[in-house]
Amino acid sequence: MIIHASMRTDIPAFYSEWFTNRIREGYVRVRNPYDPLQVTEYSLDPEVVDLIVFCSKNPVPMLKYMDLLKSYRTYWYITITPYEADIEPGLFKTIVSKRKIIEAFLQISEIVGEEHIGWRYDPIFIDDKYTVKYHLEQFEGISAALQGYTKNCVISFLDLYQKVKRNFPEVKMVSKEQRKYLGERMTRIATEHKMILRPCGEGTELAAFGADCNGCMTQQIYENAIHMSLDMPKKQFLRKECACYLGNDIGAYNSCPHMCKYCYANYDEKSVRLNRINHNPKSAFLIGDDMPNDKVQKSWINGQISLNGFFI
């Protein structure tokens, strides 16, 4: 079983205490975002969790809990972008500079190994401040800082989801010409710094420049990290452009205080504030607690046999 923590929110940044309480308790409960009374309970027994995948813009709060994760195989995707407080306001309330995030990346890499960590530089958008030239300069600088600490770099260009259009109405799609220009040069920079560039959900247009367009959360990446083969079931797609495997996401939408303008997981700031009020670090749920009419489906794993793959 693969646990994803999380594509819906930043658990390491804001909910590290809750997550470590779940590790100690040995299970976590997750509401179906489309049917809240449908609840899945996942075992967090190291014997049945094949991998925990973390996605974070700020893993600093998790550093003090790394010893608790020694019994687990983990993979970390840490997002480091060149944007400032006008785009990522919540991040700048908790982190003085992106340098601290880079330092945390290096620390985690030293603990888990470079095959267990990847860098995400996404999403990419272009405007008068964040120009093509600016992106290439920043990408070069971050690549140099991370050389030797990861083999994977993921990029993607901004998608205009409905939530993005509402919260970031002035942003525009990156043109095909800009995508190809940036993709070619970013592939070259990544290669120079001993990384494989992996476009996320961008089709195969950058393959001609040497980018690996097979996906960023793939069976091969996970197997390389854990040094084991996985008998994974049929792929479940997040979207038609996505070639990655999905795990069991234990996060919740509308709960990330980073409040990045390009975020697809938050509806608005009010929803995030309300959910933060309803967060209890001792609850089995990230947001809220048990409700009288909950229908709980427990993991099918019985603790005797570890099944490689996902429960959907």
Which key phrases capture this entry?
312 residues, alpha/beta, seven-stranded parallel sheet, 18% strand, globular, disordered C terminus, DUF1848 domain-containing protein, DUF1848
Task: Describe the fold and architecture.
It holds the Pfam family DUF1848. This is DUF1848 domain-containing protein. InterPro entries: DUF1848 (IPR014998). The chain is an alpha/beta fold and 312 residues long. The protein has one domain (2-298). Helices cover 29% and strands 18% of the residues. The protein contains 9 helices and 10 strands. The strands form 2 sheets. A 7-stranded parallel β-sheet has the order 8-7-6-5-4-1-9. It has a 3-stranded mixed β-sheet with strand order 2-3-10. Strand 6 (117-124), helix 5 (132-146) and strand 7 (152-157) form a beta-alpha-beta unit. Helix 5 (132-146) packs parallel to helix 7. The longest helix is centred in the middle third of the chain and has 17 residues, at 176-192. It is globular. Residues 301-312 have low confidence and may be disordered.
Layout of SSEs?
Elements: E1 2-5, H1 11-14, H2 16-25, E2 27-32, E3 35-43, E4 51-56, E5 74-79, H3 89-94, H4 98-112, E6 117-124, H5 132-146, E7 152-157, H6 162-167, H7 176-192, E8 196-199, H8 219-226, E9 248-249, H9 269-277, E10 295-298
Parallel strand pairs: 1-4, 1-9, 3-10, 4-5, 5-6, 6-7, 7-8
Antiparallel strand pairs: 2-3
Helix pairs in contact: 5-7
